[in-house]
Each structure stands twice: as C-alpha cells, then as structure tokens.
Amino acid sequence: MAQEHCVIIGNGPAANQAALTLRENSSDTRITIVGQEPFPHYRPHLLPEYIAGRLSQDDLCVNPPAFYKECGIKVRLGQRVVHVDFNKRELVLDHKEVISFGGLIIACGGKQRIPEHLQVFDDLMLTLKTPADAAQWIEQLSQVDSVLIVGGDLTSLSLTKALLSLEKRVIFMLNEDSFWPVPLCNELSEKIKHMLTERGVEVIKAGRIKRVTRVSDRSLEVETDNKTLRVGILGAFFGMTPNVKFLARSGLDIERGVLVDEYLQTRFDLVYAAGDCAQVYHPTIKDYWVSIGYQNAINLGKVAGLNLLGGMLSVDASPESIFFIDGIIVNTSWWTEF
Amino acid sequence: MKNKDRYPPDNSISSKKTTNNVVYSTDPADFFYVGVNIPCQNACPAYTNVPEYIRCLYERSYDRSYQLNRIVNLLPGVLGRICSRPCENKCRHGEPELGKPVGICHIKRSAADGKDPDQSYTEYLFPPQGKTVCVVGAGPAGLAAAHDLSSIGFAVTIMEALDEPGGMLRYGIPEFRLPREILKSEISSALRIGVTLKTGIKVGTDVSVQNLLDDYDAVLIATGCYVPRPLAIPGEDLAGIHSGIKFVMQVASGSPPRLGRSVVVIGAGFTAFDCARLALRLEAEESAICIRATEQDLRVTKDEILEAKREGVKVKALLLPQRIIGNEKVEGVEFVRTRPGEVLPNGRRRVVPIEGSEFVLPCDSVIVAIGQGSEPIASPGEKDERGVLIGDRITYRSSVPNLYVTGDFMTGPTTVIECIAGGRRVAEKIAEDLTGKKFREWAVRTEEATTTDRERSWDFIPRREMPTITPIENRFNSIETEVELGFESEEGIKESQRCYLCYLHYEIDITSCIYCRYCIDVAPRDCIKMVNEVITNEAGAITGLVETSNWREVNAVVIDNSRCIRCGECIKVCPVDCISVSKVELVERTLQGRRN
C-alpha cells in the first residue's frame, strides 16, 4: 500500500486527518486530497463570526497553504468527483479527468439537509455550511433587516448571536421535531427559548411551512399553518445529510451514508469511509449512526488512515457523547424524522 | 392509395417527411447495434421509439409523438404517469459525467396532455381472419393482446372478473397517481376497433376454461397476480394486518379499512409506496415503509420516493420483520436490523440479520406489500406446485393446444410496460399459430439524415422536475386528487431538448479521412478513437475497439456511438466532410400477412 496512490475524497476534518495520518505513517505514499469546495480546509463553526465581520477568511483556515507542500500532500480544490469505478479503481472528476487510486478514503462529509416538503423552496432559503454560504449571508444581510430561522441547531444559535450583533431582527421558529441533532424535550425547549428571548430574539412556535414566496428583492412571505410572516432572509437549519449521491451507482453499500464495518472499511478492498459520510452499526443503540461533530470526524479520519495502511483499529464502540446530549439520546435517524 | 397514406406500412411515423433512402434490415448485427447504441429503446420491454417521439414533441407534433408511443405501448397517457421507466435508468444523459437522465416518461405524458383530444388513431387493420379468441382478464396484458389480435382481424372477446376493465391499473394503482378518466379514455380507444368486453364474469367459476376452449379458436389467460404473498412470521393473523394489494383495491372500490393513527408498511415496491401514501390520505397520521435492504435497492422511481417523503412517509431501511406483536390486535412489529450483502442474480440484494439488534416498532396497523402471486384457475393443462397454469416464456403456449398465458399471470408480478409488451407478443404468436402467417416483424430502419440541429448548450439544460400540488396539505383534500400536474408545454419542450437523439448514427468514412484528428480535438468526451483493430462478433456486429496511442499502429479513426452524445461538433470541423449521419431506428413493420 505504501507505494500506491492514496486518494482522499473530501477536504474536511476527517479527510485532512486521514491524509496527515497516512503521511505520518508512510513517508513514501503518494497522497491526494480532492475537495469539492474551492476553499482550503476551514473551521465551519467560525463561519458566524466571519459573517459578523469579526474574523477574516484567512482566520477560518486550519493550515497555511505551505503546510500541505511541506507534508507532500497534493490538494486539489474546487474539483468534484462525479463517479467512482471500484473495479478499475478510478474516479472521474466533473471536468472528465480520470484519476487512478490504489487506496481510497471517502470523507466527503455532509451537506445541509432540507426536508423533502421544503425542497421546492430551496432557492428561497439560505443555509450555512461553507464559506460560499457565508458570502451569500453577508451579501443579503447588507440589504435586509430581518431574518427568520427555521429548524435549529448549534450553528443556527451561533449565527443568531452574530445576527444580533449586526442589529438584525431575528425570529426563531422553534419546532420540537426539527431541532438537530436532538429532538427537544420540554425542558430543553424552554431553556433555549428563554436564552433566545433574553437576547432579544422573537421565538415563535409554528407548525409546518406551507408556502414561501418572494414578494420583492428584499422581502419573503412565509406562510405557516397558523401565521404568515414577512422577512428579509429565511435561514434553514435542519442538520446535515451525508453527501454521497455521486456514489449511488458505484456499487458501494449506501443507506443514508456509506455503510462501513467497525474498521471503517467498505465492501471494496482498500476503500474506507470516515467522518459525516460514513454510517456504522452500533450495537448499543441497535441502529446505524453517523459521526456528528468535528472531533469525531478527526478520530474517524485517523482510524481510516491507519487501517488503510494495514492497521485493524475499530471505531470507539461506546462514545457516549455522541448519543447523549444533556441526557437525551441523539436521534440517529434524524434525517428521516420530520 | 388513401389507405397507404393513412397507415404507413412500417407503422412508424417520421417526425419530418423525407425522400432520403430508407433501408430495412433484420440482420442480427443491426439489432445488436440498436441494443448497444440506443439504450432507451432497448431497455423498454415494448421497444418504444424513444428518441423519435421525443424529437416529435420538440417539434410540437404532439399527435405524432403520442401515436409513436401508442403503436407499441397502447396506453401512453397511463404510462406517462405510472411507468417504471427502465428507459431512464439506461439513458445516456444519466451516465456519470453527463448529468441526469432525460425525463422520458414525463415527456410521454406531455405528448398525451398536448395531443388533440379528437385525434384519430391510425393502427393498421388487417382484413378479418375468420377466427375467434377469448382473452381472460382486462388488465394491461389482456388489453394489449386483445387490441393487437383485433387489429390483425380476429374476433376478440375479453372476459373480466371485476366490474370494470383495467385490472391493476384500475384497482391496484391509486387515483392520485392515475386519474380514472385517463385510463377509461385510453382503454376505450384500445377496444374501439371491435373488441367485445364482458365484465363480471369469473372464468373458472362462472364459465370453465374448457367451455371457452370449445367455443373459441384460442383462449388466452391474462388474469394477473392478485394473491398476496404472506410474510410467514408469527402474529400475521392478528386484526389490523392488511395485504397491500387488497388494501389498495378496497380503497379503489370505495370501502377502505380502518387503519388507526400509525401505519407500518412492509415492502419495497410501488404497491408499498401506494399503501403508505394512501394511508396518509385516510386516517393515519404516521406512515412508515420498512425495507429489508437500502433505499438504493428500491425498485420504485426516485420521484416516487421524493413525493412520498414530501407527504410525510418515512422510509426505514435495513429492517427485517421477525414477528408481529399484539394480543387480539396488532400493537407493533419486531424487527431485526440487517447488513446489506451482495446483489443476487435476480437483482435483489441479500441481507444479513444482525444478531441482537431486535427492537419493536409500535403501530396500529400493518400493511404487507411484499408481492403477489397468480390465482390458480380451474383448467386443463400442466400446472406449477401452486396449481397455476404454466406457459412457455417464448411461445406463450400452455401444454393444452390453443390455450395460452401471458402477463403477470405467467411471469409473476412485473410492470405495466412488461405486461403490455407480453400481451403484444402473445397476440403475434396466437395469430401465427392460428393462421400460419406472420403479420408484423421488428426491423432496423436506416435513413440518411442531416446532422443533428441540436445546440451544444442544450446538453447543459437541467432536468425539468415534474410540478406537483403544493402546499402538500392540498394533496390530502381528496384521495382522488392527482399529485403530478404535468409539464407546461414549454417545460416539456425544454426537457425534450435534453435528449441526445441516440438514434442518430455517426460514422467516419475511413477512405476519405485524412487523419487530421480535428474531430478528436473537439469531441466533448472520449467518443472518437484512434483504433488499431475493430472487434466483431459472429454476426458481424462491432463489439469492441482496440485503441492505440501509437500513431504508427492507427488503422482507423472511429466514432464509438456508445459513447457519442451526438453533439455534431466533429462534423463541423471535418475539413473533408467524411463524417456522415444516419437515423437508425428499431421499428415494427407490417408484413401484410406474409405466410411463414
């Protein structure tokens, strides 16, 4: 394996950790990272601060550009993998270039999830996962005064703080069923509501969104089953879903993410998956789960890198922090629950 | 002369009248070519001429587009809504770096929506043959067989056990996917050429097969599959458990059962999705489809999955039911989680239960939609272990002379388009057996063509999604409300522009080629190849190209039509005009009752 070309699809924490692990343990392996986004590896949790203007884009970056050159890791950014042929051990990029690989780590992460019933309004909603998303927020915020946030997750709470610092009116539609990754119990719901209200956020309770209409360049009308709101931006925060559509016809086992065993290996030899796109069966909860969070992604990236080099490390079978947040079991099937 | 104008002898309808030379071939090499290079037509069990009907739609010839469909698939308005779309799975536009497949099915519906409602149909009618045929069952297979037999000149009677014709189309597909007036109208047009329909007669009970054999020159059994397959797990006899097909039929007949608040549907096909979506239109508030493998293994269309989820149906994957829990009434289902295994030769995925992963999913009702079998009919002839009459898959004959079988009754549950194709094939076989004549045959029709006038930019038009009723809540106002609205005409045209028109064949004349390689330079993908050797099979069809990058070994520059996206760029740059285009189609040719 050491002499082979190891390709890593993705440029997030799992992908970068996998690349570094490969390099640390095999100095002569040829390593290539193929990332869909044009940005170098960044810290997504800092995006709200970037939107608020307190950080520059450089502050988001994890490593300086020279770092990868020093490590002997080739990074190809803004290049999307559209297909993987596991028999030929080749992947195809969207500009039709074919890249051969000996070993492959799929760490393409997740993408912002929009529930099926809201997908028709996709182009009227903003999400926040990437610097490109942040740029859209910055552009639109310069023209509007109010933001409606639906769904809800930790990013949306950070963003709310950033929006308040920019003196925007923030309306938060809190829905127990669609908060991510935990379904809200009454206690937690009240806690979040209290915290938001204290900071000046209008917290409303509404059911499903029925219609979203653009009424002007700076205004959207959002109709729910019990009220109609007029806001400048509609922000959707419904969590993440594994970004593996391009692998659907590759022969890999895909459920929501790429199904892997406890060693993160797929059904193909020397092909592993790690991070937000990998799905592992967990005996404690009797269900498949996807790693949630930056640190878990790093851990999985390390395991995948070591195992690709011949190791037999299994992923932690009882990472309680994944399953319990404030005493609530994380709903591991969050993407189908609403 | 008038008849010839009205009924073209090859049953095909050109999008443009042409005086170019036309050649017909039944050479196996040409059929092989079509199989490889026109993937959509080859994937259609009825061999619908997809590129040509899409081209007609682009030219706003809705009537001709509809008619091209109707020649082979009889019910375009129906299929434009509910076809399983094997063509789209093979569409070249869906290849990895080329985007999404063309919305072939939605374009078919556009043709049906846009055609003149008073359009007169133009099937070729043969003179009477003096023979009678009884078709048992008025589902898609029976209707297709009856229509074709009637057009060949037989006196055909359909006997249908239910009150109305259509079979599964009428009773097994909910109205929100298939409006009944569309179905009625297309069935009427199929029967209008002289087929006698008798409903409410259950063959085997009200009249025996032997009596029919005595009264008719041939009898065709096409009664479909209506016997639900059981799960065969403990607790299946509890109250609150319904079979999928019976549930849909009860709703279609206006007497739906009580479901309660929470419904679990077990199954992975269209019927399972229909049940889950219907449940939400009845009293259920939660509806979940539980499947043994993954969503990728589902055999329903992506649109079906999306629309079901938008309506609130949850798809729970990698679950195998172990037993149904409850005292007198169902209270839940115990599942075990599974790991996906390899894909078996029958296309299904093997799953491996995970030991110790059992859990109970509470629910008020369970709908089991894991397939159906044929209902045995009292008749002479060789039967299988369940007592169902056996038919030969090629000749459609049973072991009894003049007794034939087709459709799902013979094969087990398939799709509507497969049933229609089966119905048409058995009609041809019956006609041949009763008269010793062949009436139609498939041939490869080749016609000179000008280069495609498609624009390269059309390759980048995003697939148009079918508009549906929104807000979603409005779908539940009535169980009859059709969810898909159909394309506005301009959207249909836009989608039709995306088709590469794979029936166009591009070829380099190597006697004129000067090996300048300009064509290779402009090709958008590796479709033009420098070749050392062309590999052919016994029939003379090209099966492979041995490429070389060594200039000394190049014997020809060849267009690989299985990779070509018919953009026409090569023709534009060729300095010696050595690239020609022809239109190659698989068509059904009328033989005027030629004796074998």
What does this entry look like structurally?
The complex is a heterodimer of chains A (338) and B (596). Chain A folds into two domains: 5-38 and 77-111 and 241-326, 3-Layer(bba) Sandwich (FAD/NAD(P)-binding domain); 114-238, FAD/NAD(P)-binding domain. Helix content of chain A is 25%, strand content 28%. Chain A contains nine helices and 22 strands. Chain A has a five-stranded parallel β-sheet with strand order 3-2-1-7-18. Chain B is of the alpha/beta class and 596 residues long. Chain B has four domains: 28-122 and 452-497, Fumarate Reductase Iron-sulfur Protein, Chain B, domain 2, CATH 1.10.1060; 132-226 and 383-435, 3-Layer(bba) Sandwich (FAD/NAD(P)-binding domain); 230-370, FAD/NAD(P)-binding domain; 504-586, Alpha-Beta Plaits, CATH 3.30.70. In chain B, the strands form six sheets. A five-stranded parallel β-sheet of chain B has the order 4-3-2-5-17, sandwiched between helices. In chain B, strands 7-15-8-9-10 form a five-stranded parallel β-sheet. Chain B has a four-stranded antiparallel β-sheet with strand order 1-18-23-19. In chain B, α4 (50-58) runs antiparallel to α5 (62-73). Chain B is globular. The chains are: A alpha/beta (338), B alpha/beta (596). The A-B interface holds A 82-83, 92, 94, 96, 116-117, 119-120, 208, 210-211, 225, 248-249, 253-256, 259, 281, 283, 286-288, 333, 336-337 and B 96-97, 294-296, 306, 309-312, 314-318, 337, 339-340, 354, 356-359, 470-473, 525.
